[in-house]
Specification:
2 copies of one chain form a homodimer.
Chain A lengths: L12 H19 L4 E2 L1 H8 L3 H11 L10 E2 H12 L5 E6 L3 H8 L8 E8 L8 E2 L2 E5 L3 H8 L3 E4 L3 H13 L4 E4 L12 E4 L2 H15 L2
Parallel strand pairs in A: 3-4, 3-7, 4-6, 7-8, 8-9
Antiparallel strand pairs in A: 1-2, 5-6
Helix pairs in contact in A: 1-4, 2-3, 6-7
Chain A binds a DNA duplex (24 and 24 nucleotides) through α3.
Chain lengths: 216, 216
Amino acid sequence: MPQQKKAPVVVSIQALHRMPYYLHLLKDYQAAGETVISAKAVATELRLNDVQVRKDLAAVSSVKGRPNTGFEIQDLIDNMEDYLGYNNLMDAVLVGTGSLGRALLSYKGFENYGLNIVAAFDNNPDLVGTRISERTVKSTEDLSDFCKRLKIHIGIITVPAPAAQEVCDQLLDGGILAIWNFAPAHLSAPEHVLIQDENMAASLAMLSRKLKEATR
Amino acid sequence: MPQQKKAPVVVSIQALHRMPYYLHLLKDYQAAGETVISAKAVATELRLNDVQVRKDLAAVSSVKGRPNTGFEIQDLIDNMEDYLGYNNLMDAVLVGTGSLGRALLSYKGFENYGLNIVAAFDNNPDLVGTRISERTVKSTEDLSDFCKRLKIHIGIITVPAPAAQEVCDQLLDGGILAIWNFAPAHLSAPEHVLIQDENMAASLAMLSRKLKEATR
DNA sequence: TAGATTGTTAATCGATTAACAATC
DNA sequence: TAGATTGTTAATCGATTAACAATC
């Protein structure tokens, strides 16, 4: 039996995190008129180990590099965008139209990353019905029904921490499979639901801690 | 020679990332009227390994847990806030008053995490002089001078990606030691400067990738 | 050909988890 | 005392880096 399938290369979470940086750099080089790039050049730019770069690229890309030359930039970009899912748009709902929620709604760039925020929700009756960045704010009462009806798989939580779990439960009720959580709170959810925490408090803590160590 | 110094426990970057979650949970328990908590309970709540929790707590806390009882919640909170630097406010400047910059400026919670945004900068002359969340927007021309004069150590970059490196250079010029970078771009800076990337594109990519794998 | 670069296999490094004695 | 929990030492796991043959 011929094994035609691509080997299921496991990409570590750290490697996955590096991917957008590769992509960004590749586009920069392409914009500068380059057509090929070596793993070593990428490594130097991003201050990474060149073997690591080669492994990362090999994991997500079907093209091979040519000794003494490097990789075709266009090929890598295509493969990486494909891998990162930037090519197929996914629908999402956003809950919580405070300042951060508004900022995310007004950000035009998410479509480039494959994310389409189709609706915004808030529990404040004064906000329900108003329009933010061309979307009408809906009541959180309709949240789970909306998700079910439109088969939305991604929920973005931008409510204050104390309300986060409740919103999470509503999203789960609506059949959501992945949550992008901006609330500084730990969410409880079934194993199969993906939770991506965007905890700015955590990031800030890391920054301030490292700064403290550095200036000691 | 007596070694009175606390052992220089190395806290991994992953561990550091868990700290804010511990702190949050501890405060929740305290708010619920608890005074002690076991590492096991923390581990169960946050879906971590209990030995890991004990190691993490031991690394940042001077108090020891009591067998059969656990840890004093208040002690842990004190130690952790201290460790994370939430008790000593650090000054920062923010550059780029687009939607994300505004969202961060309007967020009242940063002071709880030890961050004080003292000024906002933008290169758009129309915005310079306007007020956002009780701060007057200054011109980026004055950025490095301002940082030098007030001895600011932290810079927050919320400008579009193509402008990020230029702003970074200005901040470095102003003697900044740490940068919290929200632009989806890789910044070049000397080794000793801390760069904390808050790359939403990267997070989003991870979410969408994992979702893709899960629904396959 | 010589030099540069690739990709793979093995070694190293670091973090997580398991095992277990110590303690309240 | 027995049971629960702690903290430490050792084993495991996974990611990064080093070494090196293969290739253009």
